[in-house]
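# nightly structure sweep
# worker-07 picked up a monomer target from the shared queue
# config: single-sequence mode, recycle default, output format = structure tokens
# input follows
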Amino acid sequence: MSAAKTKQQLLDELKARIEKEDPTPELRKGATQLVFGDGNQDADIVFIGEAPGKNEDLQGKPFVGASGKFLGEMLEMINLERKDIYITNIVKYRPPNNRDPLPAEKEAFMPYLQEQLDIIKPKLIVTLGRHSMDVLLPGLKISQVHGQPKRYKDHVYLPLFHPAAALYNGGMRQTLIDDFASIPAILKKI
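# output follows
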């Protein structure tokens, strides 16, 4: 009898399957590589962005550019590091010219994202930006629900503005920091 597979083995198999099944050939052609996810597979918190940008595409890891640096600073504020969390995107290939992912592209990757979440089993899923929130919590407006935990289909979600938005809009920076600061309290309640 073989031993049960580790979460890392299951994630590695899922990544290989995405590459084999090639859900978005057009996106893949324009990208350097698949950007699957990064961090602790036993994490209590999974952060989900929309799609990789240029730096992510080159390094093969999500949130390594300016947004990732800001995310790292916010994690420090709540006494966490990247190694404590897991971070991924809905769409796993960089869209050309960093355009928004198309609905069909998000839809193509949803089953894989769901499987990623099923493997990791986080207590809290933090959506970063409107795109990831729309896919996971349809019908909500981020301007109205940011920073408010939502229970939906066996998961607790926390919709947040995307760190990139805070980089371009100083007023939003403090909003995001304040929302982020609520994460430890939300985790305790779950």
